[in-house]
Every structure is written in C-alpha cells, then in structure tokens.
Automatic annotation (TrEMBL):
Domain Multidrug resistance protein MdtA-like barrel-sandwich hybrid: 87-233
Name recorded for this polypeptide: Efflux RND transporter periplasmic adaptor subunit
Limits of the YknX-like C-terminal permuted SH3-like domain: 343-409
Organism of derivation: Stenotrophomonas aracearum
Region Disordered: start-end pairs: 390-415
A Pfam family: HH_MFP_RND
Chain segments annotated as transmembrane: 31-51
Length: 415
C-alpha cells in the first residue's frame, strides 16, 4: 500500500515547476551558433575564390605563319620604302559650279561611271531650254521655206508651159524662176541653221551632263574634298574658297612598292628579282614580291635610285603610303624552286621541356596545350617548323618557366 502511494506521488504534476519560465539564454545561443556557421561558410567561399582557384599567367602570343615562296632564299640587300598607287585621281568637275550633292565618303568603294557628286544645273538647264527653243524655231522656218519652194516650183512649171504657148511674156517666166532659185537658196540656209541649232542643243546637253561628276575608274575613296554649297572649279581660283576636286579615288589593284636604293648597292638589284616585303604595321606578315623596274635616273641630293616592286598578294590590309621594309633575295636554284614545307614561328616561341622542343598553343578556352614540334632551318629570327603546328594558330612567345600544359593564360597588355 505504501509502495502504491509512493508511485502516485511520483506521477503527480508539480504546478509550480510547470508554470516556471524556461531559461532565457538557450534559444539565443543557438541562433548565434547558426549565424557563425553561415559566416564561416561565406568567408571560406570568398577565400577560395580569391586564393584557391588557378590564376591565369600573363603571356604574349604570336601567329603561326605559312612559309611563302622564296622565304628560304638569303637576302642580298635590305631597303625601306612606301606602298604607292599607280592609278590614283583627284576627281573634279569639268566646269565651275556650286555643289548640290556629294554621294561619297572616305573608305567607300565606287565603280567606273558611278555618280560621285552633282552640281547646281540651273544655268545649264536654262541654256538647254534656249537651245531647244532655237532648234524648234529653225525647224519651223525650214518647214515654211519648204512650202514656199514647192509653190515656186509649181508656179515656174505652169509659166514654162504658158511661155511655150506664147500666153505669157518671157520676162514674167524669168522672174518666177529667179524667185524659185532664191527660195531654194533660203531653204538650204534654213537646213544648215537647223543643223547648227541641233548641234547647239547637243552641246547644251553636254553642259547639263557636266554638272554630274562620275568616277573615272573603279576604286576606293581615300579623301572627300567638297561639301554641298561649296564652289568647285577645275582651275584654282585662289583665296581658299574654291575647291578644285570632289574626292580622291585609288585603284587598290594598282598598289606597288617604291624604295630608294643607294647608288653603291643598286648593282645588286635586277629586274624580276624576288623580294620579301614586310609592312611596318604587320611585322609578322611576309609578303612575296618582285622587282618591276629600276628607274633609270638617280637623285643627286640623296645619291639613290628608285626601284618599283610588284606585290604578289592583294589584301585589304595593304593601303597606300604604308611604310614597308623589303629584302631583295637571291634567285632560287631550280632544285630549290619549291618553298620549304611547314610553317614559321619566332625562335623565341620554341623552348626545351623534358628534352623535347615544344611550343605552347593557345586554345579557344584560353588554356595552353604543350605541343612537341619538329624544327627545320633557321629563317633569320624565325625557325621553320615542319610538324606539330599549323598556320593560323597562336603560340606563346617567350614562354615563362612556370607555364605548363593546360595552364590558363591571359594576353599581356601592351605597356
């Protein structure tokens, strides 16, 4: 019985303890622990983003260039010059007039006969209208004289019959014949006047056409010299207020190179001699060329002789007045007529890794691939590569020691 009473006491609820509030610090401590864990995760992610990921290596790249014909020949003479156009024209109007519209812009391609500009044709139109009216008047006069000549011929024929019958006097018949001959002479004069009026109208039409400026040949506009409202003239009027041209056109198919060679070295240059040209704007691009002619005169002041060189490659990157360096090459022997196989890269782009000559090719994902290459002959500062690389690829120039296969790279910004 006592044991049952004790069990009942243990099951009894103590209302004083149930109504007591829980400790106030327990939930707040748990919240701070959760916030601390979240902050540690965020800081860890930032630290990995800043220090844990791979940093790209700054490098400079160069293109892999196909070997052009004649690049294996040795240079006998180097010179500098400029790209020039053999066919270039500053287009102007044939007459003096005010510009009404200009239809060209710099860099625009124009075809032969294309309209470049128009002048105000008020005066030319008025002259054409006057010539047309004069032609109509001459034609009307001609028609009237033709009618009079026809009537005079008929009258002379009737009088001739009457004279034979002695019905009219001989003097009356002679007077009619004189009038007929006079009208025939006037008719011939009117016919000539009509032709003159027609020629005058044709000249007036040419005057109207002269207000339209057309391209004399196909080419590219390199300069726009006039604006609407300005006065243009084929002759300079002085004072700076009259333009002498509408624009300048260059035939890009006529580009060639002009260099000046010292008198002491001109004997090394021969017509049809192979040449390797390098534009200052594209130092890695070797352009095949050939000597056209040696101008048979010297510059007394500079002691030089001008040489014309033909470019074997037509490319939009070649523009007039570009600076160019040329190397006059020895003529290749018949057995060496074919160009060396493979491509060329700067010698500084090739390094030794694991006792192999390799190059680092930059991929589209900005990561490099270590490629073993087979090296051929030396080409000045470049090297021939017969296997491992293809023209058009980008390789790392002067690869740093820490660069490895698969490394991320970024192009070094110019200083």
């Amino acid at each position: 019985m006592n044991a049952s009473a004790e069990l009942l006491k243990e099951l009894r609820i103590d209302r004083n303890k149930a109504s007591a509030p829980p400790p106030s610090g327990t939930p707040r401590r748990g919240l701070w622990i959760v916030l601390a864990i979240v902050a540690l995760l965020v800081l860890g992610g930032i630290a990995w983003f800043l220090f844990g990921r791979e940093r790209p290596i700054e490098v400079s790249t160069v293109p892999v260039v196909a070997i052009q014909q004649g690049t294996a020949s040795s240079s006998v003479l180097d010179a500098s010059g400029y790209v020039v156009a053999r066919r270039m024209a500053t287009v102007s109007a044939k007459i003096t007039g005010k510009v009404r519209e200009v239809m060209i812009e710099e860099g625009m391609r124009v075809e032969e006969g294309q309209v470049m500009a128009t002048l105000d044709p008020i005066d030319a139109n008025a002259q054409r209208s006057l010539s047309a009216s004069q032609l109509e008047a001459a034609r009307s006069q001609l028609a009237g004289l033709k009618a009079q000549v026809a009537q005079a011929d008929a009258e002379a024929g009737r009088l001739q019959k009457l004279v034979g019958q002695q019905l009219v006097s001989r003097s009356q018949y002679d007077l009619a014949m004189a009038q007929r001959d006079s009208l025939r002479a006037q008719l011939k004069t009117a016919e000539r006047n009509t032709r003159v009026a027609g020629d005058a109208l044709a000249i007036a039409e040419l005057g109207v056409d002269n207000n339209t400026v057309r391209a004399p040949f196909s080419g590219v506009v390199t300069a726009k010299a006039a604006q609407p409202g300005e006065i243009v003239s084929p002759l300079s009027a002085g004072g700076g207020f009259t333009r002498t041209g509408i624009g300048t056109i260059v035939d890009m198919d006529s580009l060639e190179i002009e260099v000046e060679v010292g008198e002491a070295f001109i004997g090394r240059v021969q017509p049809k001699m192979p040449v390797e040209a390098t534009l200052n704007a594209y130092p890695e691009w070797k352009i095949p060329a050939e000597v056209i002619a040696i101008i048979p005169t010297a510059d007394r002041g500079k002691a030089t002789v001008k040489v014309r060189i033909e470019l074997k490659v037509k490319d939009p990157r070649i523009v007039p007045e570009m600076g160019v360096r040329v190397s006059f090459l020895e003529a290749a022997a018949p057995a060496q007529a074919a160009a060396p196989k493979g491509v060329r890269v700067p010698a500084s782009a090739l390094v030794e890794r694991d006792q192999k000559t390799v190059a680092f090719v930059v991929g589209d994902d900005k990561r490099v691939q270590q490629v073993p290459v087979t090296v051929g002959v030396a080409l000045n500062n470049d090297r021939q590569v017969t296997a491992g690389l293809s023209a058009g690829e980008q390789v790392v120039n002067n690869p740093p020691p820490e660069l490895r296969d698969g490394s991320a790279v970024v192009e070094k910004q110019p200083q």
